[in-house]
Amino acid sequence: DGGITQSPKYLFRKEGQNVTLSCEQNLNHDAMYWYRQDPGQGLRLIYYSQIVNDFQKGDIAEGYSVSREKKESFPLTVTSAQKNPTAFYLCASTPGGINEQFFGPGTRLTVL
Amino acid sequence: RKEVEQDPGPFNVPEGATVAFNCTYSNSASQSFFWYRQDCRKEPKLLMSVYSSGNEDGRFTAQLNRASQYISLLIRDSKLSDSATYLCVVNNLPNDYKLSFGAGTTVTVRA
Fold it and tell me: Is any Cβ of chain B less than 8 angstroms from the Cβ of A8?
C-alpha cells in the first residue's frame, strides 16, 4: 500500500535533548512538508522540500532542521533551541504543483 | 490579518440537519482551495477540492466566492460520522507549493 509513515506515534524527551522525527513516503511524490499543530491553531509550516537535496524554511523554522537526501525520506530534527517543542507534528507530501497534500499519521512529541 | 480565517464553532446540529460555514482568505491571487477533515488527534484528510464553479460530492457542497474572498462548505443530511473539525486550506501565492491552513471549524452532530 502506498502512503506516508511517521514514527514514532508518541515521543517523550527531556528538555535540552535533540530529537529526530521520521517521515517516509512511497508515493513517489516530489515535495514533502513538515507542519506543527498546537491546540486550537491551524497547521504551521516548519520546512518544505520540493526536490532531493533542497529544502526551504517555512514560517516557524527556528529551532528545527531537516535533510532531504532521498526522495522518500524527510526527517525533522527538533533541537534544544526550539523553545516550546511539545506539539503534534505532521508530515505531508504532494506530487508537485499546487495539489492536495497527503498527510502521515503524525507524531505527538512531549518534552518534559 | 491571518491568511485564512474560520469560525471555530462548534456547530452543534442534530442528525439530518444542514450545516454550513465559511472561510475567508486574504490573498486575492490564491488559486487553489481545499476542504480537509480532521478527526480528533488524527491527521487531516482531503474532503474535497473547491472549484470556481462550485462542486458537490454526495452530501457535501463547496462554493468559492472570489469577489468576497471566501469559500463555503455545506453538509446536508448530517450524520453522526460527520462530527469532525473541517480545515479550510488555500495556497499562498500563484504557483507556490505552500498552503495555508485555517484553524478549523468544529462540527458536532448529535443523535
Answer: no
